[in-house]
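Repro:
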Amino acid sequence: MFSKIFSKQNIFYRAIEIIQDTYSVILLSLFIYFAILFAFYGFRLISCNKIYYAAYSNKWYTMNPKVAEDLLLIMTRGSKPIYLTVGKVCPVTMATFCSLIKTSLGYISVLHTARR
């Protein structure tokens, strides 16, 4: 009776190890993928300040006053940089992504060394 219980328990533990090994790789790859994705588009949003200059370089002073007023709203909104933030604390840029990867690899190195 106990041998059946132990054999089933061993099968259960092996199945759990296989699932954990599989999902840890998948979750790590998903984490890296989404981190790169958010950092890339965050960088694109920050570097996309050409709307302000494009609206200003128009001959807005010769336009219809309503159109000039709309351009003024575009210029006012375009003068403030747009950021994706992490919890409204720090912007998501390529620099923050690189520092996150650098810190994570440092922690992984320490954990790997401590495990041996």
